[in-house]
Design goal:
The protein is α+β, with helices and mostly antiparallel strands. It is built from 9 helices and 7 strands, in the order E-E-H-E-H-H-H-E-E-E-E-H-H-H-H-H. The chain has helices spanning about 20-25, 40-50, 55-60, 65, 110-120, 130-160, 175-220, 225-290, 305-325; strands spanning about 1-10, 10-15, 25-35, 65-70, 75-80, 90-100, 100-105. It has a 7-stranded mixed β-sheet with strand order 2-1-3-7-6-5-4, sandwiched between helices.
Length: about 325
C-alpha cells in the first residue's frame, strides 16, 4: 500500500494508491510505503529518482547498510518492537529516506505510531519534510516509552508475586502453590527479559539513526532546524536506554531471587526425606537384627518377644521425631 501526503491550498491531503494520486496533484512531502508491491515501488522510485532498498537489504545489520547516502538521498533504517500487545511480538524494520523536499518511509509491518501520527498530521494546515520526519521519530519514541512503562508495570506485579510471603511449612493442600507460582514467575521473567533485550536493541538502532541524521545536517549548518529539533529526541532515547538497562538489571536480580526461592523449596523437600530416613533408621536396624537366622537369640522363643520388638522399634522412631521437633527442624 502506498500513501502519499501532499500540501494543498486547503491543507494536507492524503491519497491511497497510485491511481488516486495521479488524479490529485499537489506538493508531495511524504510517501509512506507499507508492504509495497512492484508497481508502487516503481512509482515511488520514478517520483523521487532513487532506488528503494529491498526487504532483505533493510534487515542488514551492518551500520553502513542501514545508514548511508546515495543518489542525493539519505537512507536510514531502524528497528522497533511491534505487536507488543499480542502473544507474538516482532522486531520490525523501518527505513527513512530524505530526498530533496520529500520524506519516504518503507515498512513491512503496520505500526501504531504511524497510524497515530498520520491522524494528527491530517488535522494540520501546513507542514514540511523535516517536521514530518521529526514528528515520526517523536511518536516512535513515545510509543517505545509506553512499551517500557508496560514492562515496568509487569515487573512490579511479578516482584510482589515473587517476594510475597511463602508458608512452606503450614500448607493445608497437598499441592505446593508457592512452587507453581515461582515456576510461572520464572517463565514470565524470561518472556519480559527477552522483550526488554529486543527493546534495548531497537533503542540503540534508533539512537544511531538520530545521531546520523543530526550529524549530517550539522556538518552543513550547525543551526539547521533538523539538527536542533533532533537533540531533544536524542535525549529522550538516551533516557529510555538507561531505563531499559535498569529494567534489565532488575530482571537479573529477580531471576536470581526466584532461583534461590526454588532452591529453598527443593531443600525443604530434601530435608523431609532426610529426616524420615533418620527416623526409620533405628527401627530398621532392630528389625534387621531380629531377622538374622541364628538359633540362639534373646527373646526368640518368648511368647511376648514379638510385641516387645515392636515397642522397641516404635520408641526408636519416636525419640528422633521428638528431638527434631524440639530443635524445630520440622
Amino acid at each position: 500500500m502506498i500513501r502519499i501526503y501532499t500540501q494543498t491550498e486547503n491543507g494536507i491531503a492524503r491519497t491511497v494508491g497510485v491511481e488516486e494520486q495521479e488524479s490529485r496533484r499537489g506538493e508531495v512531502f511524504w510517501i509512506d510505503l507499507l508492504t509495497p508491491d512492484a508497481e508502487e515501488l516503481r512509482y515511488a522510485e520514478s517520483l523521487c529518482a532513487i532506488e528503494m532498498p529491498t526487504k532483505d537489504e533493510m534487515r542488514e545489520i551492518e551500520a553502513t547498510s542501514r545508514l548511508y547516502c546515495e543518489d542525493g538521498g539519505r537512507f536510514m533504517t531502524t528497528t522497533v518492537l511491534s505487536r507488543v500487545e499480542t502473544d507474538d511480538p516482532i522486531i520490525a524494520e523501518i527505513t527513512f529516506i530524505l530526498k530533496g523536499r520529500v520524506l519516504i518511509t518503507i515498512r513491512h509491518t503496520d505500526s501504531y505510531s504511524f497510524r497515530v501520527f498520520s491522524h494528527q498530521l491530517l488535522r494540520m494546515q501546513g507542514t514540511n519534510r523535516d517536521l514530518v520526519f521529526v514528528g515520526l521519530l517523536e511518536t516512535l519514541v513515545d510509543r517505545q516509552a509506553d512499551v517500557l512503562e508496560r514492562f515496568g508495570t509487569d515487573l512490579d506485579a511479578l516482584s510482589k508475586k515473587v517476594f510475597g510471603k511463602h508458608h512452606t511449612r503450614r500448607k493445608e493442600k497437598v499441592e505446593d502453590p508457592d512452587t507453581d507460582d515461582l515456576r510461572d514467575a520464572l517463565e514470565e521473567l524470561g518472556r519480559v527479559g527477552d522483550l526488554i533485550t529486543r527493546q534495548r536493541d531497537a533503542l540503540v538502532n534508533l539512537l544511531r539513526l538520530i545521531t546520523f541524521a543530526g550529524n549530517e545536517d550539522s556538518c552543513l549548518d550547525a543551526q539547521n532546524s533538523l539538527y536542533v529539533a533532533l537533540r531533544p529526541v536524542s535525549r529522550d532515547v538516551n533516557s529510555l536506554s538507561e531505563y531499559a538497562s535498569f529494567l534489565s538489571n532488575k530482571i537479573n536480580f529477580m531471576l536470581d531471587a526466584v532461583l534461590g526461592l526454588i532452591n529453598i523449596e527443593q531443600n525443604d523437600i530434601v530435608k523431609v526425606f532426610t529426616i524420615m530416613s533418620v527416623v526409620f533408621m533405628p527401627p530398621t536396624l532392630i528389625a534387621s537384627i531380629y531377622g538374622m537366622n541364628f538359633e540362639y537369640m534373646p527373646f526368640l522363643h518368648s511368647p511376648w518377644g514379638f510385641w516387645l520388638s515392636l515397642v522397641v522399634m516404635l520408641l526408636a522412631a519416636a525419640i528422633p521425631l521428638l528431638i527434631f521437633k524440639l530443635k524445630r527442624y520440622i
